[in-house]
Write a structure and sequence with these properties.
The complex is a heterodimer of chains A (366) and B (120).
Chain A (H helix, E strand, L loop, with lengths): L4 E2 L3 H6 L3 E5 L2 E6 L4 H10 L1 E5 L4 E6 L3 H5 L13 E8 L5 E9 L3 E6 L4 H11 L4 E2 L3 E7 L3 H8 L11 E6 L2 E6 L8 E7 H12 L4 E3 L2 H10 L41 H10 L3 E8 L10 E3 L7 E11 L4 E9 L8 E5 L2 E8 L11
Helix pairs in contact in A: 2-7
Chain B lengths: L1 E2 L4 E6 L2 E6 L1 H7 L2 E5 L6 E2 L4 E7 L3 E5 L4 E6 L2 H4 L3 H4 L8 E5 L11 H7 L3
Antiparallel strand pairs in B: 1-2, 2-3, 3-9, 4-6, 5-8, 6-7, 8-9
Classes of the chains: A alpha+beta (366), B alpha+beta (120).
């Protein structure tokens, strides 16, 4: 592995007591001085600022929309200007190569992809589409939480008019900022692509506000887990089908079996078949009964003793807002809804109830 | 007070050795959300993994610093694991050990040596 790339805002991270760790080739703030628990709770009550500049930003020409539809089970052609959809690059087995956001703008398409998949995604896009243009000169910030709108609209008054999954371009100090009203915490909030030249100034202007605090990757993970949002590489991957991952809702109507442009994406046959007939496994929420967290990799059984292994925890930890351990797992679909599941932690089988997702109510401004 | 390289502190109290983790260790672990303690009466050998601590970030173990028997555990930690962050060298002691031999404590670090060890 080569040298770690420092994020642009490294000086700012240092000023806020960031503890930096290597992640996807970047040196990332896992937490700031406040710590994971305090940061998590702050974001649920106020507004948290995340530096997610490691994520990939890619522009496609508008005329590649049809080509993009051949890679994702999403209605890209029907996307109105100023709107975005959650999407998935699928493989022939119906698994997931990456999950992403697809925004339709006035004169192009703008994609945001996962850091660890960025290079593979760009190669995948370039193999099938023309004019794929990775964006290399912009930071990506997320401002999330119930006071995000109030804070951001002090700098960008028009931001308050946006609804969940709207995208817009707004000027700030002579620079064009690309906004979306979305995020990865279950809270209302925004993601803002900022030209490198003004990124530090823009982040500082937000952090100077009383209700805004920086939030690290640690709390980002517990926030998204409480919100029931899958993480690529854990809850999503090439060997877990879209339906097993519980993402059937993300398949646009137009691309479903009875849609106007049914199928036509990698893995359409297995995915649309599983949508009708069910999948061998399903993603479930789990609430361990005790206090012990069940982390990714914990094997799941159908009995307190003996029995069969029926799955594995894909993401798990402690939910600060829930006030206890929470997890998501992939289990055999034959296991009845509501049946008690047992996770084996340090050699002991511990009971966990199946739970509806999300654990924490999402508060998107629809 | 004596210290181990595993960031435990040991304090002799009557016939027992009280054991906890240092403030430095608690800070490094981050917010503690779960503590699993051994049963009272358990015979332990030095370096046995006898306590599990889970923070928001990860799980880690506490090793028995001496041979002996677990005389008492701090059951308050089971209900309030956050004590480990609030008061690691006071209220958040983990267990009291009836040590087979206090001799090895002479070899352990004192406060100055421990501060040096953690680079303070």
């Amino acid at each position: 592995m080569g040298d770690l790339k420092p994020l642009l805002l490294k000086a700012l991270h240092g000023a806020h007591g960031a503890k930096l760790v290597p992640f996807a080739g970047y040196e990332m703030p896992v937490q700031y001085a406040a710590g994971v628990m305090a940061e998590h709770l702050w974001c649920r009550e106020k507004a948290g600022l995340f530096d997610v500049s490691h994520m990939g930003q890619v522009i496609l020409p508008t005329d590649q929309a049809e080509g993009l539809e051949a890679l994702v089970p999403i209605d890209v052609l029907g996307l109105a200007p100023g709107r975005q959809r959650y999407g998935l690059f699928t493989n022939d087995a119906g698994g997931v190569l990456d999950d992403l956001m697809i925004a339709k703008r006035e004169s192009d398409l703008f994609l945001v992809v996962n850091a660890a998949c960025k290079d593979a995604d760009i190669a995948h896009l370039s193999a099938h589409l023309a004019g794929v243009a990775p964006v290399e000169d912009r930071a990506l910030l997320a401002l999330q939480g119930p006071l995000a709108e109030a804070a951001l609209s002090r700098l960008l008054p028009d931001a308050a008019q946006m609804r969940f999954m709207d995208v817009a371009v707004m000027g700030w100090e002579g620079a064009a900022l690309w906004l979306s009203r979305s995020g990865y915490t279950g809270e209302d909030g925004f993601e803002v692509s900022v030209p490198n030249a003004v990124a530090e100034g823009f982040a500082s202007a937000l952090l100077e506000m009383d209700e805004v605090a920086p939030i690290g990757l640690g709390a980002r993970d517990s926030l998204r887990l409480e919100a029931g949002l899958p993480l690529y590489g854990q809850d999503l991957g090439p060997d877990i089908t879209v339906i097993e991952a519980g993402l059937g809702w993300a398949i646009s109507k137009a691309r479903r079996a009875d849609g106007q442009r049914a199928g036509g994406f990698p893995g359409a046959d297995p995915i649309l078949h599983q949508m009708e007939a069910g999948a061998p496994r399903r993603r479930v929420g789990l609430r361990p009964e005790g206090r012990a967290p069940m982390r990714a990799g914990v094997p799941l059984f159908d009995a307190a003793e003996g029995g069969q292994q029926i799955g594995t925890v894909t993401s798990g930890g402690f939910g600060p807002s829930v006030g206890g351990p929470i997890a998501m797992g992939l289990i055999d679909s034959a296991v009845p809804d509501g049946a008690m599941i047992y996770g084996e932690v340090r050699g002991k089988r511990l009971p966990a109830r199946q739970s509806a997702l999300p654990f924490q109510k999402q508060t998107y401004k629809r | 007070m004596k210290y181990t390289e595993e960031h435990e502190w040991l304090r002799v109290e009557g016939e027992f050795v009280v054991v906890g983790i240092t403030e430095h260790a608690a800070t490094q672990l981050g917010d503690v959300v779960f503590v699993e303690l051994p049963d009272e009466g358990t015979e332990v050998a030095k370096d046995d993994e006898i306590v599990v601590i889970e923070s928001v970030k990860a799980a880690s173990d506490i090793l028995a610093p001496l041979d002996g028997e677990i005389a008492e555990v701090n059951s308050a930690l089971a209900d309030n694991p956050g004590l480990v962050n609030e008061d690691p060298i006071g209220e958040a002691w983990f267990f009291k050990l009836k040590a087979a031999d206090l001799g090895p404590m002479d070899e352990m670090m004192d406060e100055a040596a421990y501060k040096d060890f953690i680079g303070e």
